[in-house]
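This section describes the prediction task in plain terms. A model, or a person checking by hand, is given the sequence of a single protein chain and must write out its three-dimensional structure as a string of tokens. No templates, partner chains or ligands are provided. The sample shown here is typical of the held-out split.
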Amino acid sequence: MEERDIFDIFGDEFENHSTKKKRRMEDVEEQIITDNESRTRDLLNQLEKAVAEIEDDEAEEPEIVESEIVEISNEISVREEPKNDENINFGKTFREIPRVQILSLPAVGCTHQVAVPPNHTYVPPERRTSQDALKFPFPLDGFQQEAIACVEDGQSVLVSAHTSSGKTVVALYAISLAFRERQRVVYTSPIKALSNQKYRELCQKFLDVGLLTGDVTINPSGNCLVMTTEILRSMLYRGSELLREVGWVIFDEIHYMRDKERGVVWEESIILLPDNVRYIFLSATIPNASQFAEWITFLHKQNCHVISTEFRPVPLQHYIYPAGGDGIYLVLNKDDEFMENCFHRAMKTIDKGTSLTSADMRGRKGGVVQKFGINFYLAGSALHKLIRLIMEKNLSPVIVFSFSRKECEVQAMEISSLDLTDSREKFLIQDIFHNAIALLSEEDRKLPQIESLLPILRNGIGIHHSGLLPIIKEALFATETFSMGLNMPAKTVLFTAVRKFDGKVHRWLSSGEYIQMSGRAGRRGLDLRGVVILMLESSIGADVAKNIIKGEADPLNSEFRLTYNMVLNLFRVEGINPEFMLERSFFQFQKYSTMPALYEKAEKIRIEVENLIVPKENKLLEYWNVKKDIECLQEKMLAYISKPNYIAPFLMPGRLLHIRTQRDVFGWGVLINFRRLYCRRRNLEVNPEFVVDVLLPVSPASYTGRGDIECLRPAVPGQKAKIETVPILLHCISKISSIRVRYPHDLRSDDSRNSVLNTLTEVKRRFPESKGGIPLLDPIADMNINDEKFIEMHNQVQLLKTSIDEMDITKDPLFKDYLEKFEEKQQLLNKLTEANENLRNTRNLIHLDELHRRKRVLRALGYANKQDVITLKGRVACEISVADELLLTEMLFEGVFNELSTEKCASLLSCFVCQEKVESAELPPEFRDLLNSLHKIAKRIAQATLEANLEIDETDYLQSFKPYMMQVVHAWCLGESFFKITGMTTIFEGSIIRCIRRLEELLREMASAARAMGNEDLETKFNDACSCMKRDIIFAASLYL
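The expected answer:
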């Protein structure tokens, strides 16, 4: 009898990649048919007539080679002509794109679409006069009625609606329906806190509810199981019997699939689930909801409905509050109209009121201003005033979003003097707080974070951020972690900033982030409107404000990535392999979906190229190539000129410098200052960075108060520029003028800076580009660069310039007209090259090359053989998903943990789960030796990775294992109090708890891994480590349970 895969999940049409069976076109029936279905069909038919099917290569493990689709153009140019077989390859791939029908259905109060498998006739769900699975004590909205009708008909549905709009109603109905049909239902959520909250809510409505989060297991045989997505994935890989009875799976907050770190878990789970399961996806508004539904239909050969609505039960009004101002300005009304006049009035208020005089600053040394800056002081002062205004206008409760844990706490203390509660409320708050902490020991109740919180809580001010103790994470004063979905609505939402640091750069808040957080405003059934207030301490452009406040929600894009745990687990599952996962990923589906538009774009450009006739094209091509050679040499010369030993003597104040980044040309600016910064590099040597401060004209809309060249844009022609001081690295200097200008000593005022802008304008007028432009320093005569290579390049440039002057084409009266057309054609050819490159990348199976290289690593280290059969090492590694499975498995097999004490094992493993970066003292020798043993094995894995041609930076890899919790964990395992271990580090108390809870989860996996390798002593040791850590406040039960 033929072997079947897990739960008969996957269809017979899947052919194992390792057997290299040839696919015929008739086996690939799925089609992408969007709303413009007929136009896409015509394009497909046109391609199918033009190309012929070719046979796939027979190879045991094909290497990834770049596709041979180079160009579509046959024109004379610097590009190669296409080859016939290149277009044949592309045509075959284009025909095999997965295709799905999308139908739009009539609906009231919402949009209703359905994705239908190919060759299926869609039958609309029956309209029931009453839904008998569950009665609701309120009238249902249109989108809820549509979604429930689909659920009652046993069809999958994606519900996309704003926060607090009532999406949970659909999930509740599906659970009730599953109970009625005697089916099991799984409810997944992205975070444990949300799982705990949802479990409590469902227990109040249904009897047989269980909870599985890794930390907590309650009633695991329940008919409704609430679990994290990681638990669901683990059950799928292990072929859990429990899942055979599942009829419905509910994915809450499905938009979390775009998370870079954990989003892949959602994709794995959805791909591995059986075809006979039906799905409920609950999401905030996403613009590409129908594309996601198409993917579900493609995967599971079933209808998937999309019910979406932009309707808000409580309309929002958006205001701007200028820091230092006296009022708020309505900028987006409840009808979604942007109020330009009010916005500009608010910006004028900011320009007038945000600068502190020297008198304002006097007496503030060492305080908030010195530590956080003037803008932060203004924000704190403005926040105090604004909260008072909110209370006076009866707009509470209010959530205040901040984008830093430190700022969150400091700003809460800034307003702690406000008394927002009456005596009865104070008594209730104190009573609830004492009841909550009654679970803690006497010593834990005296923790500074707990003792300091009660006074501000009594005043009606709460705090919520990731560094807080879990037991006191109930707040309306929140960082953006709060927007995940915890059920805490308010009447007003207030943003203290519009810029955030995302771990790499400071950037504007995205419209999607703003929509998600501002959606907390307005309580259904309580408020007629919700209020959103944006507090600004510096002016921003109207375009920036519109993009944030009035922009679209972020699309749901795949963050699929390969992991060794995924590859090894797929080796274990009968009938499928890692290629299977790649082919069915949402990432690959999105790539294929773009192919029709990409091909059409390439065709359009090709036709433009064909129709553009350039006179004397061959002679112009000769001129063009010489010109490019000159530019290439000049770039190399510029690298010499910008070396500090040559350029430094000429970096004098007032010097005109031409600034250019990889992305933008800013043009001429005035040098103000030249300084040297010392940066410690990875090789531990101290190397200087040279920075010049340049007064530079920039676009006002791009200026944020911080002179970050990466965030700035040049002023567009006709736009009034804003001149600001911008720090510039030497490689961004493209020209050095021989001209120096005078400028005011004090450049703080707008008038002073504008006078410099006027001087720049005058210099450009005197030295127009038509007459050679602003004079430059001669690198040899003026800068005394006498390097032989530089002089040789300089001479080559002069010779090439002479050859250009001698070309006949340059003497033609119509030369400029010819050149303009030629350059236009070259730009089109560049676009065509880019379009073809996009087609080439889209056609290839994404990540396949990476997969083959990861397989080489696994074979080299002994986790699988050449036939992809998993070894004992591989089975052990499959047990580990919390941290680096390869390194931990190597450490197990090399006996690193064998002679270590229980406490030392836990201490060493903390390096894998610590995510905080802190300044800490030198590690004691005993801990440093442990870390060195980890690094020794990690270097070997890094070497194997490099030998397989996978990118890895060994230094970064080693630094990813952070030792900052080693001593803390060791002390905790020895029985020290939480109060004492918090004094051993500057890490937030909540972060310590999160790390140790994560460590306990890793220790449980290590015990399973030790059991898989047959080492009972190690299994006991890891279990003992779990036991000695699970105590007191770190593992205090959630208030929801």
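For orientation: The longest helix spans residues 815-843.
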